[in-house]
């Protein structure tokens, strides 16, 4: 498989990791991606540090997997 196709697949995986970090809802993102929650967890294990670093550079905040009401409100106020 040519490297370009692999890069595209990696970018898609990173986008789903980012969405999971932004929303804190792995189950919903996995369903949208058509993958199992475990597959998304594996992608997160591979790409989370890289994606978080990029998000920090952009000033984007993340939510925990099970955000508290306070965390949700704080995140909404930042936007």
Provide a compact summary of the structure:
Helices cover 77% and strands 0% of the residues.
Q: What does this entry look like structurally?
A:
This protein is mainly alpha-helical and 79 residues long. It has one domain (3-78). It is built from four helices and no strands. The mean pLDDT is 83.
Structural class: mainly alpha
| Number of DSSP helical runs | 4
On the 0 to 100 scale, the average pLDDT is 83
Main pleated sheet: none
Organism: Bacillus coahuilensis p1.1.43
Domain Insertion element IS150 protein InsJ-like helix-turn-helix: 13-48
Protein name: Insertion element IS150 protein InsJ-like helix-turn-helix domain-containing protein
Pfam family, one: HTH_28
Write the layout of secondary structure elements.
Layout: H1 3-23, H2 26-33, H3 37-58, H4 69-78
Helix pairs in contact: 1-2, 1-3, 2-3
Organism: Bacillus coahuilensis p1.1.43
Pfam family, one: HTH_28
Domain Insertion element IS150 protein InsJ-like helix-turn-helix: 13-48
Which key features would you list for this structure?
single chain; 79 residues; mainly alpha; 4 helices; globular
């Amino acid at each position: 498989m040519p490297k370009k196709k692999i890069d595209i697949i990696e970018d898609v995986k990173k986008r789903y990791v980012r969405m999971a970090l932004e929303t804190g809802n792995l189950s919903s993102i996995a369903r949208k991606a058509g993958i199992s929650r475990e597959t998304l967890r594996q992608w997160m294990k591979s790409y989370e540090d890289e994606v978080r670093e990029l998000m920090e550079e952009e000033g984007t905040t993340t939510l925990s997997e099970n955000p508290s009401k306070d965390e949700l409100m704080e995140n909404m106020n930042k936007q």
